[in-house]
């Protein structure tokens, strides 16, 4: 079989069978072990002068190759264009997006440096799989250096509507660069359709054919919707491990007979945490009988604290949670437990199982695997209820959740009330339907489906048809 080379901003291989690794790391590590492949990316470290020196290591059978970046690279490419331009724009937050020429120049420079550095590692039969918004132009940089291998790209965040993307000064160059790939993947049909809308309107001469095969200037690529899942079996197993069982018991004791609502999100404006708190506050205001009988545990580890908008969201949430607790708490109960630190995945599995409601309400999300983890962690005989934003990519697969508009405090409040009152038989029915999907379309299904598409040069090849 062909060797797989994975290229991403950061390299995070998972130990074989590791329970506390993310699903993406588990899936990619499994594929890399199977093909004796390489995972290439930024080390997370800095150097005064970029040399292209590669640090080779092996982690539990996965070969990794990493490079350090200059401080200017980190500021312009990572903190700048990736996280202050593309991230907010692709999450519909044009109001906080920053369009600086230096950011775009740094982004192009680092993608070129990645291409120069990884090219000598590529053998003729290798298949390359590039990941996420940090590296959109990497395929074009590799083609410019003579790489003819099959190259795939997967976007893990939403693709924005055309009118939003037009706000990006170099939008056309960015999209045209994607035609260097052979297969490009999105989590949902919505994100794929937004991409096709842009291509149809803004790229004269582009032809969109059957199976979303797009031809431009004599080159054809295939665009696919391929939703990522979690490592379902490993996560279910982790829910029965000692750390998870201990966490479950601690939460039950701490709850003291009260119902718990759980939210677990990286501290980010796209996650809708302010709107979530306001929706929960509306529930408390409209259901005084629930005071003292329910609480929201919000776990929100901070991220990107060197970006101003992230510091602002943390300050806003500190103030909002304090105001709500000050308004409704008494000496024996606080309505919101707001925690700014992360927990290992096995402990989270136990916390999820102890919660009557999983409250997953991002304003916009490429997928959102917390929703799937919450479902996988539940007790089949007494499962909780998933409340899910209709603007999360996961909503396309998880119709048996209570879907809400996270911008509407009343919608969120009504869903909380409905979930708390839901009969056990209905909870089991909804959970079973959700769990079937989580089991069938797990992270290994996602990885195998995309790599099968990528490995088939002809769009009509048997491997392609079998994976579709």
Structure overview:
The protein is α/β, with parallel strands linked by helices and 468 residues long. The protein folds into two domains: 4-229 and 443-461, 3-Layer(aba) Sandwich (Rossmann fold), CATH 3.40.50.2000; 233-440, Glycogen Phosphorylase B (Rossmann fold, 3-Layer(aba) Sandwich). It has 17 helices and 16 strands. A ten-stranded mixed sheet has the order 3-4-2-1-5-6-7-10-9-8, sandwiched between helices. A six-stranded parallel sheet has the order 13-12-11-14-15-16, with helices on both faces. The protein is globular and about 70 Å long.
Structural class: alpha/beta
Structurally, how many domains make up the residues?
Answer: 2
**CATH topology name of the largest domain:** Rossmann fold
Radius of gyration: 23 Å
Number of beta-strand segments: 16
CATH H-tier superfamily of the largest domain: Glycogen Phosphorylase B
Provide the residue-averaged pLDDT.
93
- Unreliable sequence segments: 16-20, 460-468
Shape: globular
Order the strands across the largest sheet as they lie in space. Answer: 3-4-2-1-5-6-7-10-9-8
Please indicate the percent range of residues in DSSP E strands (runs of 2 or more). 15-25%
Tally of contiguous helical segments: 17
Helix content: 40-55%
Short description:
With 468 residues, this protein is an alpha/beta fold.
Task: Provide tags for this entry.
468 residues; six-stranded parallel sheet; ten-stranded mixed sheet; 17 helices; 2 domains; single chain; Rossmann fold; alpha/beta; 16 strands; Glyco_trans_20
């Amino acid at each position: 079989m062909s060797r797989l080379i994975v290229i991403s901003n950061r390299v995070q291989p998972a130990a074989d069978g590791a329970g506390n690794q993310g699903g993406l790391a588990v899936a990619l590590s499994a594929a890399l072990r199977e093909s004796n492949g390489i995972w290439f990316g930024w080390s997370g470290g800095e150097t005064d002068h970029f040399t292209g020196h590669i640090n080779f290591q092996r982690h539990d059978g996965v070969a990794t190759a990493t490079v350090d970046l200059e401080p200017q690279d980190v500021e312009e490419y990572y903190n700048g264009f990736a996280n202050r331009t593309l991230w907010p724009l692709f999450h519909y937050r044009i109001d906080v997006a920053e369009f600086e020429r230096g950011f775009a120049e740094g982004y192009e420079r680092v993608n070129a440096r990645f291409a120069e550095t990884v090219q000598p590692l590529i053998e003729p039969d290798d298949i390359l799989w590039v990941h996420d918004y940090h590296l959109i132009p990497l395929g074009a940089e590799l083609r410019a250096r003579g790489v003819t291998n099959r190259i795939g790209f997967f976007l893990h965040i939403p693709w924005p509507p055309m009118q939003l993307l037009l706000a990006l000064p170099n939008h056309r160059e960015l999209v045209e660069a994607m035609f260097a790939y052979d297969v490009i993947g999105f989590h949902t049909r919505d994100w794929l359709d937004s991409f096709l809308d842009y291509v149809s309107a803004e790229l004269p001469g582009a032809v969109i054919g059957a199976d979303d095969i797009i031809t431009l200037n004599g080159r054809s690529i295939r665009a696919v919707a391929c939703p990522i899942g979690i490592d379902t079996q490993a996560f279910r197993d982790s829910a029965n491990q000692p750390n998870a069982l201990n966490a479950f018991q601690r939460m039950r004791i701490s709850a003291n007979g009260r119902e718990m609502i759980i939210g677990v999100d990286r501290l980010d404006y796209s996650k809708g945490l302010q709107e979530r708190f306001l929706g929960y506050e509306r529930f408390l205001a409209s259901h005084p009988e629930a005071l003292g009988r329910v609480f929201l545990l919000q776990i929100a580890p901070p991220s990107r604290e060197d970006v101003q908008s992230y510091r602002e969201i943390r300050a806003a949430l500190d103030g909002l949670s304090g105001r709500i607790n000050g308004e409704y708490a008494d000496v024996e109960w606080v309505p919101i437990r707001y925690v700014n630190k992360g927990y290992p995945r096995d402990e989270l599995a136990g916390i999820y199982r102890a919660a009557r409601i999983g409250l997953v309400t991002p304003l916009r999300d490429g997928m959102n695997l917390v929703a799937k983890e919450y479902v996988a962690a539940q007790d089949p005989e007494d499962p909780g209820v998933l409340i899910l934003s209709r603007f999360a990519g996961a909503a396309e697969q998880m119709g048996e959740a209570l879907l809400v508009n996270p911008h509407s405090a009343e919608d969120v409040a009504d869903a909380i009330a409905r979930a708390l009152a839901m009969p056990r038989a209905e909870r089991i029915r909804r959970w079973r339907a959700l769990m079937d999907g989580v089991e069938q379309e797990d992270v290994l299904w996602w990885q195998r489906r995309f790599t099968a598409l990528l490995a088939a040069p002809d769009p009509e090849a048997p491997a392609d048809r079998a994976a579709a």
